[in-house]
Amino acid sequence: MAAPSRPPRDRVFTPPLTAFLGVVVLVVASALWHRLPCPDLEGAITLLADGDFDGDERDRMLRRVVADARQAPAVRARWAGLLAALALEDLPAWRELLLTFGKEPMPRTAPAAEARLDLDLGDPLLASVLAAGVAEAAGDHEGAITAWARAQVQARLAGRPFPRAVADAALQRLQGPARPR
């Protein structure tokens, strides 16, 4: 007697369904690749300067800059980390990166003019801090005071206490005792 024949099994993964799922996986992978980029330090600086990141994405990229700058020997990279730590209001990272320049309250070494491109990381407050730091490193006392005063106002208006405290301390250091406001 012949074995009873079974009805054919329904195939779940038919060729059209498999092709469709493959396309879906590629689209999702591409979206994640673009949404969660993992660039090197220079790529992260450029992406931040473009201003395309907001909120958590920006914070994640700033944290990446801080982490990468910790091991970087280049002045530009360490300045990028210092500014990213300020943007994150991360006092321990700020202090750690500041120490890579020496024991001074601000770095005495500034990136060359062509190396300053995109170092503001897309943030006007950081651009003011960079200008103040460059002026201090160059010995431009009045320029440093002007840039720090601008950073102080920007930080106050934006409600960013750590950058404001840094600007306040720099102005006090450069101008002497604080005057009543």
Question: What would the average pLDDT be, to the nearest integer?
Answer: 89
What structural class results from the helix and strand content? mainly alpha
| CATH architecture type | Alpha Horseshoe
Q: Based on CA inertia axes, which overall geometry fits?
A: elongated
Task: Note the main sheet.
Answer: none
The CA-CA distance between the termini, in Å, is 106 Å
Q: What oligomeric state best describes the polypeptide chains here? A: single chain
What are the low-pLDDT stretches, counting only 5+ consecutive residues below 50? none
Strand content: under 5%
What is the CATH topology descriptor? Serine Threonine Protein Phosphatase 5, Tetratricopeptide repeat
Count of helix runs: 8
Helix fraction by DSSP (H/I, runs of at least 4): 55-70%
Count the E strands: 0
**What is the string of helix and strand elements?**
HHHHHHHH
Highest CATH level, the class = Mainly Alpha
In words, what does this structure look like?
With 181 residues, this protein is mostly helical. The chain has helices at 15-35, 41-50, 55-70, 75-88, 91-99, 124-138, 141-158, 161-175. α3 crosses α4 (75-88) and α4 (75-88) packs antiparallel against α5 (91-99). The chain starts with 14 loop residues before the first helix and ends in a 6-residue tail after the last helix. The mean pLDDT is 89.
Provide tags for this entry:
single chain, elongated, mainly alpha, 181 residues, Serine Threonine Protein Phosphatase 5, Tetratricopeptide repeat
Write the layout of secondary structure elements.
Blueprint: H1 15-35, H2 41-50, H3 55-70, H4 75-88, H5 91-99, H6 124-138, H7 141-158, H8 161-175
Helix pairs in contact: 2-3, 3-4, 4-5, 6-7, 7-8
